[in-house]
Each structure stands twice: as structure tokens, then as C-alpha cells.
UniProtKB/TrEMBL annotation:
<feature type="compositionally biased region" description="Low complexity">
    <location>
        <begin position="269"/>
        <end position="289"/>
    </location>
</feature>
<feature type="region of interest" description="Disordered">
    <location>
        <begin position="269"/>
        <end position="343"/>
    </location>
</feature>
<dbReference type="InterPro" id="IPR032466">
    <property type="entry name" value="Metal_Hydrolase"/>
</dbReference>
<dbReference type="InterPro" id="IPR008257">
    <property type="entry name" value="Pept_M19"/>
</dbReference>
<feature type="compositionally biased region" description="Polar residues">
    <location>
        <begin position="294"/>
        <end position="306"/>
    </location>
</feature>
<dbReference type="GO" id="GO:0070573">
    <property type="term" value="F:metallodipeptidase activity"/>
</dbReference>
<protein>
    <submittedName>
        <fullName>Membrane dipeptidase (Peptidase family M19)</fullName>
    </submittedName>
</protein>
<dbReference type="Pfam" id="PF01244">
    <property type="entry name" value="Peptidase_M19"/>
</dbReference>
<dbReference type="GO" id="GO:0006508">
    <property type="term" value="P:proteolysis"/>
</dbReference>
Amino acid sequence: MLPIIDGHNDTLLAATSDRAGGEFLAESGDGHLDLARAEDAGLAAGIFAMFVPNEGDLDYDELPPAVDHERARRVVDEQFATLHDWADATDRFRVVGGIDDLDACLDGEAVGAVPHIEGAAAVSPDLINLKSLYENGLRSLGLVWSRPNAFAHGAPFKHGATPDIGPGLTEAGFDLVEACEELGIVVDLAHLNAAGFWDVDATIDAPLVVSHAGAHAISPSSRNLTDDELDAIADSGGIVGCTFGTPTSVRTASAGPTRRCRRCWITSSTSPTGWASSTSASGRTSTARRSPRQSATYGGSGTCSRGSKRGGSTGPRGKPSRTETGAAYWLHGGTNPASGRNF
Ligand SMILES: [Zn+2]
């Protein structure tokens, strides 16, 4: 069986909130993921997201309000504890702390969880607790969910809209990206707006990772990745997880009613086959890195708040273009905004 590494799941959110799908160690027909079904499906590992739930109703065309830092820390602490409890309870599940753990999971020894925080609100703006989060297992950090924080701003889920919306990283955001690279924490660009994306691109040398997103050329949501961004990810040797979440996969807001699978929220207008073609589009050979700020399509409302830290966010990364490397796609079972769940 081909081992699968899932780029993003919200299992910890489900387990620690009052929403359905809270069981993981016990087989269940609810939710997206439990250990028994993960084993049956050949899941080697997944990026297990820790996420602070939104409060109140959301307008998905706008950025939701920021969450309180202290609340975010409490929620992340609880979700971290839940993850470690699961790993302590069985040898069939482990927290991935390094390559050896991941290799063991790919060899079938256990299902692995790469601890991830989606939206860095739980990180202190002075980064004082980042090292302790790493020591607790954090290996992947999404700078934002689609709401602002001390580090970046995020992109709304607006259809028929460009991701080139809002400013890029803050000073603390640049510091956080550098600190993550130094510690060995993956910087996840999911949910960033265009300015934030290019600021990260200009700051780190590591491959660019977007754990869950769609292709803007197929589904023009401000949440999705433009061809320029996909080219940059491919050139860096990076990776994109493809989300099947309805809000990021419908082609346009005026495309008419879509039939929706009750279990997986894949719409009839965007089948897995359709997404496979997007893989080809994103993985195409590119001869040079391009910046949206140099293109006619993107006028550049966002500006790099720190400027050219490493040769400028509009310039090349200063290393050979790895044109043989296409951006690969992980599978990601999307979740449903109608239920208020994260995606
Ligand atoms: Zn998400």
C-alpha cells in the first residue's frame, strides 16, 4: 500500500472542542480521522494542526478578528497535551520529532503526527515561548490562519478575489520566520496573503511549504495560490497540500449550485481528477522565478514591511532554480465552513 502523508487535519480541534468527531483512538464513523481508519487507509503520518476556534459568526469574505494570545496559549497547551496523551496510550501512534520518526512511520511502525500550530497567536510576539513549543514537539508552524496576528495578516476566503490583499509580515513576523528556520520548524505559508507569501520567500532558504491550499487559476479564491506562487514553491523544492474544502474549491461564486458529498465536502464542480490536473499545472517547468510584484496581474497592494532582507522580496533566492522539482500535492480532506470548522 502506498503510504500517505496528510498535509493537514483538524483532528485535535475536533477532539478538544464540542464538535463531532472527537474520538481518535476509538474507531468512529464520525469526523475525518481516527487511528483505526488511518491504519486501514495506509496513512503513514499527518500534520496534526492545533487551532484556536473562532468566536461568533464569521463573514468569510473578510478577515476574522484576531484571537487573544493568552487564550491561544491555553488552547494550544490543551491540544498538545491531547496529542501526547494519544501517543502515550498506544505504540500504534507516535509524535514525529525528526526524520527517523517519520521514516519509521513510512515503514509502517506507527501512524505519526507532526505537531503543527495553525496561526501563530499562541507564540509570544517576543518569541519567548517558541523554544518551549519546539521542545514540546512543535515541528510545523503556520504563521496565520485567515485572521491577523502579531506576525502576519492572512487572506480571507473571498471568491473572485486576488490573494494580493493586505500587508505582509510584521517585524515580529520576520523574526519568527528566521527563528523557525534556525530551530528546524517548518514555516507553513497556508492562509498567508500574497505579500506575506513573498516576504517569507525572500527570508528563508528552506523549501516553501503550503500544507493546504488550492490553485487560484482553477478556483480564484483569495485563499488559493497563484501560478507565480506555485512556481516559486516548485523552484524551492517545496510542497503543497491540496485541500478539497468547498470554500476553496468551488470555481466561482456564480458557478451555480454544486452537489456536495456529505462525507468529504468535495463538490461536483471540482473532482479529485480536476485537482490532479492542477498538479500538472503547478509542477510545470519554470525557467525563472517570478514575483507578483513584477507582473502585470498583481499590482502589489502589499509591501514588504522590512524590505530587502535577503536581496529583496522581489528578487531571486540566489540559488539555482530546481526546475526538475514540481510542487507535489498531499491529500487533505477539507472541512466545512457551514459547521464552523477550520479548513
Ligand atoms: Zn487551514
